[in-house]
Amino acid sequence: MEAPWVKNTAWVEDIAPDTRPFSFMRLTMRPYLPLLFVSVLATISAAAVDAVGPIIYKYTVDAIVALEHGGTYADIRFWVFVYLAMVALRILLWRTVVYFSAHLGLGVRSTARYVLTNYLLKHSQEYFENRFAGSVSGKIGNAGDGARHLSDWAINTYIPFFIQTIVSLGIAFYSSAYVGWIFVVWIAIALPINIYFARQRPALSRAAQAAETKLRGVTVDIVSNMRAVQEYARSVLELTNLKELIIARRLAGLRNRLFDQRISLSNGSLQIIATGAMLLIVLYLGERGLATAGDIILVLALATGMGERLFHLGQQISNLSETWGEIEEGLEDVLAAHDIPDSKGAKNLVISQGEVEFDQITFSYHEGESVLSNLSLSIKAGEKIGLVGKSGAGKSTLVKLLLRHYELTGGVIRIDGQNIAAVTQNSLRQSIAIVPQEALLFHRTIRENIAYGRTDATDAQVEDAAKLAQAHELICTLHNGYDTLVGDRAVKLSGAHRQRVAIARAILKSAPILLLDEATSALDSESEGAIQEGLQNLMQGKTVIAIAHRLSTLKEMDRIIVMDKGTIIEDGPHTKLVRKGGVYANLWKHQSGGYLKDE
Ligand code: ADP
User: Fold this and answer.
1) Atom 17 of ligand 1, nearest CA residue
2) CB–CB of 451/445 below 8 Å?
3) Which of 32, 279, 371, 462 has the smallest CB count inside 10 Å?
């Protein structure tokens, strides 16, 4: 069955950064309102039927006792049938509750996952730089599971508890006002005690969880570094370290589990006292002819039912507060306000030529630490620029700003006359292709990785791009050709292979603006030479900004821009800058004296 949010996802696009669990529950249930309605209706009916059980016991027992005073077996048979009908109805209703609440709970979780992931995809690069991938995906998982549990518990536990308590109270008062009041007092004492215990529990379970996380982390670390452990013969040391964590985990677990015993013990004691008091009262009334044998059974059944429900109350409250906290923690991180939202009514970027202009831009990652100050740079359509400068000069930052990974502190960046802060980020990034220093390849096939540049590309187009990137022949020698999985973090491909795949991806994207951010820096000179032709093919007809440490790769660019401490200090073609004898000429001389002797 298709999930409702799959059909209509428009509402998911403009979710507010609201981190309150209650709002989140409303959000996740939004596509499932009919299901919620049926589930609540079914659970109210089921709980009400449950709660009237004691009345049927009372009349059955009264009918049995009446046999001695002219009653008939027909009367008893009647109540037995009523009892059977009630059991059948209960089974039917509870199955209905489970059926609908399963759909609701799993549906809520799927909406939660979809909504949160969709929201996550719009966070800025800075957001992801400050977080572990595993932790973010864990929080989405926890919030989704939490939402599912709350939905399940609401339908299967909280609503039935409420209904059964109300109905039982009604029956108790109907049987005798004294019994009814004992019920009230019982609940009034049990509730605060359970809340008191429940408030202490999250700390204990968090401690147990923390001990577990630590133990797992260290175990994973040991397994990942198993070569070091074995080659340095340190298994005894590792085991000794691990032993302490295992013991700590055991103690934390024990404290957490045994804490429940206190809640159970206090609830159990209350149950005995309350049941005892109620039974003494009915017996007293019975002795005076004010209560029947059936009434005694009625009170017994009511007290047993109530005792069972209250017995688990503390556990349920602490589950609720723990899950609530987990959802809150996840939402605070994932549903935080986006750093760089599209501006209201943002239009798509319309590229006519691919002209780029940095107009007096100023930027800092942290207040007070200026990275770029008042920098202006105009790049004509189709012009190829080489960015050079010491590490930390601000070259990569310039590229990131063009992609709008960060907001400018001052100035404007324009593409074909349009302020990039006023257009949609999607249209901006669709117009720019980038080959970074480390190709970002997914654990998917080579074909899928190349087609990431253009998802509707045909196989022939993918192969053409690979040929232009000088990657085709290499790919053909792989085990499964284009269908070879690249492996986790592309470990199966060499650095040069990976860069060729990245170049093919960029060629296929065929965006008018191209950024090469140290695209060949991680390669040795030989591999670098081998991918030059691919890069030349990629650059054809594009506006290019290329950052490189090895100046030889930038020699042929139209202009070289030399940056230092966030400003441009030299600007001109290679030959002119070399002749001028400034910073660039020095760098060039230095490098030619090194591994570029042949220049
Ligand atoms: P380049 O590419 O020329 O080596 P960068 O643009 O990477 O220089 O860095 C410019 C300055 O900005 C450096 O001082 C660097 O430490 C700082 N910087 C770069 N990235 C970040 C970041 N994500 N957060 C904070 N500071 C950063």
Assistant:
1) 392
2) no
3) 279
Q: Count other C-beta atoms under 10 Å from residue 100's C-beta.
A: 22
Question: What's the confidence (pLDDT) of residue 496?
Answer: 82
Is 470 in contact with 528 (CB distance < 8 Å)?
A: no
User: How much is the mean pLDDT over the chain?
Assistant: 90
**Do 403 and 395 form a contact (C-beta atoms < 8 A)?**
no
Q: State the closest ligand 1 atom to the C-alpha of 517, by its place in the atom list counted from 1.
A: 2
Residues touching ligand 1 (Cβ under 6 Å) are 129, 365, 371, 389, 391-397
CA 33 to chain centre: 24
Alpha-carbon distance of 531 to 507, in angstroms, equals 13
How do residues 105-122 score in pLDDT, each as one tens digit? 999 999 999 999 999 999
Q: At what angle do helices 21-29 and 133-153 cross, to 10 degrees?
A: 70
pLDDT, residue 593, reads: 52
Q: What is the pLDDT of residues 316-338, one digit of tens each?
A: 888 888 888 889 888 998 999 99
Three-state secondary structure call for residue 485: strand
The pLDDT assigned to 5 comes to 61
Residue 165 CA: distances (Å) to CA of 50, 57, 58, 158, 172: 11, 18, 18, 11, 10
What CA–CA distances, in Å, run from 536 to 331, 470, 513, 544? 46, 11, 14, 11
Closest CA to 501 of 481, 521, 526, 479: 481
Closest CA to 441 of 453, 433, 427: 453
Question: Which ranges of 176-234 does DSSP label H, i.e. alpha helix?
Answer: 177-224, 226-231
391 CA → ligand 1 middle, Å: 8
Q: Alpha helices, DSSP H only, in 121-156? A: 125-129, 133-153
Task: Give yes or no for residue 263 having a pLDDT over 60.
Answer: yes
Helix (H) or strand (E) holding 433: strand 432-435
| Mutation choice for ligand 1 from 396, 403, 545, 569, CB with most ligand atoms inside 8 A | 396
| Beta-bridge mates of residue 527 | none
Is 237 a residue whose pLDDT tops 80? Answer: yes
Give 285-316 pLDDT, tens digit per residue: 999 999 999 999 999 999 999 999 888 888 88
SS3 category, 452: coil
- Tokens standing for residue 348: 């798509």
CB 101 within 8 A of CB 29: no
Distance 513 CA to ligand 1 centre (A): 22
Q: Are 299 and 278 in contact (CB under 8 A)?
A: yes
Hey, what are 48's tokens? Answer: 């009400």
Closest residue by Cα to atom 27, ligand 1, is: 365
